[in-house]
Amino acid sequence: MKGMLKRIFPVFLCFCVSGLFFKLVYAHSDGAPISCLGSGHDRYSFRFAAPGTHTCGNLGCHYQYPINSGKGKFMIFVLDKCEPNEIVDILVSFKQTDTEFHGFQITAQDNYYGNRLVGTFLNVGNDSDTQVEAGGRFATHTKKGIRQKFWHVKWQAPPEDFFVANPVRLYAMGVESNNDGTAMGDFIYKATRLIVVERKKKKKRTGTYHQEGVRYENRLSFLCDTDCFKHVPDYERLSARFFVECAENVYS
């Protein structure tokens, strides 16, 4: 009897541990686990690498198919340049998929030693379809957000006094899921976009205006001394938009 119990106990323990493991694995409809984006080597640069070597496709969550083997398309839409500390809008989107359930996780890395996480992801107002993780280092879906194919998040670039090894790479992985509670039948995708974080260089705009039959070549700042502004009180405090519009009228 004791021998039989000794043989049964390891099997019973294995089932208990396996049950706990699978419960953890398949409970991610409320958001992706932190740092499951994987290595992310791609056509941009072999030096880029995500925080870990594990992905949604080999952690046991969705492992049946290779990454990007599905017929769907997974994309990131964002500007290609921004200034330090600027908040930019990011759209993460699926298309050409047939399933009802989708998910994603996104992070931002610069080229400093290959995989440094930079910037901060922000929630968009009262949007309950997305959430941020690890203090804004990642953004992912919520349980409500799995029934859609696109998500809107915001990312704040590092401040000006923070050295950024450009370009910053926005790297995301997406899941096209059948939501059957198993690791089978789900497709994993990855997408990347590059964004350069740098302060805009002030362009010296030159132009021509005429005064009393004399042609002048001057920079835009010289227009403050022309009749275009003198009839407006406190012209030094005019908006940049009015300044440019006035300059365009003078140049025309």
Automatic annotation (TrEMBL):
InterPro entries: Reeler_dom, Reeler_sf. Pfam families: Reeler. Residues 71-161 form the Reelin domain. It comes from the Bacteria. This is Reelin domain-containing protein. It comes from Candidatus Brocadia carolinensis.
